[in-house]
Write a structure and sequence with these properties.
This protein has 102 residues and is mainly alpha-helical. It contains four helices and no strands.
Length: 102
């Protein structure tokens, strides 16, 4: 009979092998999960770095004469004025890196 291991005691020793195979498969599954998590973390870190670079290296654009003329007649709400002042202060703190090249 094929279900016996051939030594005549009638025990099937394949169970020991299947247990270790099951352990190996579990370890491989956990390893793949860890690899996927590490890859996702790498992608997230790269995306965050690109976002940081984009926000830290943006160049401030000075308004043109036409833009200034259009804004002369417009009533500006206080919240927009505060935001504009904050933006200007932000640019001036890092003017050398953010200045517009001519």
């Amino acid at each position: 009979n094929d279900e016996f291991d051939g030594d005549g005691d009638g025990e099937n020793t394949d169970n020991d092998d299947s247990d270790s195979d099951g352990d190996d498969m579990e370890i491989e599954r956990q390893s793949k999960l860890l690899d996927q998590e590490m890859e996702q973390e790498r992608l997230d870190a790269e995306e965050e770095m690109q976002r940081t670079i984009a926000t830290k290296t943006s160049v401030y654009h000075l308004p043109t004469e036409e833009e200034l003329k259009d804004e002369e007649d417009r009533v500006v709400p206080p919240s927009e004025i505060k935001q504009r002042v904050d933006d200007i202060l932000h640019v001036l703190t890092d003017f050398k890196a953010r200045r517009e090249t001519v």
